[in-house]
Please model this.
Amino acid sequence: MSDIAIDVKNLSKLYQLGEIQYYRTLRESISNFFKRSFKKNKNNGNYIWALKDVSFEIKKGEVVGIIGSNGAGKTTLLKILSRITPPTTGYAWVKGRVGILLAVGTGFHPELTGRENIYLSGAILGMKKKEIQKKFDEIVAFAEVEKFIDTPVKHYSSGMYVRLAFAVAAHLEPDILLVDEVLAVGDINFQKKSLGKMDAGAKSGRTVLFVSHNMAAVNHLCQKTLWLDKGKIRMFGPTETIIGAYLLEGVEIIGERQWKNLAESPGNDKVRLKAVRILNNEGKLSASLDMRFPFFIEIEYQLLCPVSDLQVGFSILTSEGKVIFSTGDRADLEWQGKARAPGIYKSVCEIPAHILNAGKYIISVGGDIRFEQVFVFDDRCLCFYIEQTEHLPYSLGRPAGVICPPHKWHIYKIS
Amino acid sequence: MKNNNESANIKPLKGWLGINFKELWEYRELLYFLLWREIKVRYKQTVLGILWAIIQPFFLMVLFSFFFGRFIKMPSAGIPYSLFSYAGLLPWMLFSDGISRSTNSLISNENLIKKVYFPRLILPLSGVLSPLVDFAFSFLVFLGLMIYFRFFPSFKILWLLVFLPISLVTALAVGLWLSALNVRYRDVRYAVPFLIQCWFFISPVVYTSTTLPKNWQFICSLNPMVAVIEGFRWALLGTSHPSFFTAVSLVMVLVIFVGGLFYFRRMEKIFADEI
Model:
């Protein structure tokens, strides 16, 4: 079976809680040793299976998405396949040179110039010096940093920094590429370019494993998707089916989602989500909306530090995971381009009546900081129904399609 | 298929593992780049830059010459004390810089270890090799001192080609143990400067081991640095030539080195999870 690129059998990884984050001191280790010899029960529930009995096969040239909520074991799987960490039990067989992108800027050093960092980071990601030399100009052009290539990267803007870092990674050409959420850098234009680059790689016959919360990207890039849930495979199959099932599971249909504890709410070190609500035209929380009236999507968030040119927004997806449209609050001209001071904010979007067809929809919430970062807060935040409330003369029941815009017909008798 | 040799069989790693020299060779470019980064960054923001490589051993030598040479009148085998102590400082600095850099090499490259795969052995190795640059510069100063004291080396100086690699292996041997221990026990980081200080006094940098009582010489030669320093001094200045004690010391180098390699390999699997 020579066309198999990755073969995984009963792969499991056990982590000792605490071990992941805290290093031990000699003193603790000695005291543990004595404790252990007195107490026989070694396992006091401090262990967690990051992966448990995971088995699958991926053929050469397949582009496979990996989705799942945080802590589902997605990154652990990539780390095992790239040999960063060994599995606890089971085995995996990987055929070909493996490249892994867990973060952009791996190996970058602020004191070194752009040119020097390209070589350094390239070598760390597994490129040969000759390969880097060959692609050097291409990398610089892709990152759009020609003028600053001999400037230490500590003087770069954060946008330039991530563009250069990603450009190096994007030019990696291994047989198998493992990617973890690194597309979430740069502004939207740069993201599009990066996605294009990934797409080209996928079409050239490379095997790709792509971890992402961005359903649109997964949908676009991957034919097959693996859904991990608490370390186990939940489903593995055609992307559309899997994303559909994933999105529908666990989404609240009560019209509101709140995060009481700021530390656990989705977000990053600058922005944290507090609540997302769907309000009907009367201003009441509702997940069941009348297609004849406008409705509101409200995103409440807290800024932990001053952020300039922030945008929060959302995408509305069909239950199969296809994005219908995406928007963000940069459309509010009054705030456009302005810095927002720390505090709690609410961005509200009014969605006009007669846009969406009857059916079930999912809201995915995200945002971006211009030229710097794009993030997905929650890829399946809320779910709502548009109710068929209007009699449409042209259709007996629900017309096909995702939108149902107002439109006109005229019939003319020509002869 | 052309990629057959690049296939990887991933399975749980248990117990003691051998060293994959072939893989290490494949990653030689990465070693080169890490070394280059280390050297470049080290002197990039300093005013005196590479001069630091000279200042340190030079001033130590001046101090030693005054205190041990002039005031205490430490025997130095008929060689000017400045030359004598500097010839000891050369391998000593290479060794002590090597172990302190390699000890910290893993934890200071935490983000690399967590984000990409490569043979981890490369990190302590680059920690041991990077002081070679400083060594080269301080060696130039030594040549200057030789001219100043009109001391002309014999052909024995070619033995440096043997003793220099031995001193690197010695530093790597200790560095392997300490860097791997440092991942699990951060105490090591604090213990190393102290360890180096103590080690300095039990190594024949400011004295020769031949001045020690005969029955103490065997115990002292269990220190792997005895062979390195005495070897260096013999090659450069023609003092007491290698003896039975040198051999004892070299056996110790080998024991610590092989042990270190296996210990490092055994601990390697937990680096990404525990660092």
Remarks:
- The first strand of chain A starts at residue 4 and ends at 16.
- The radius of gyration of chain A is 24 Å.
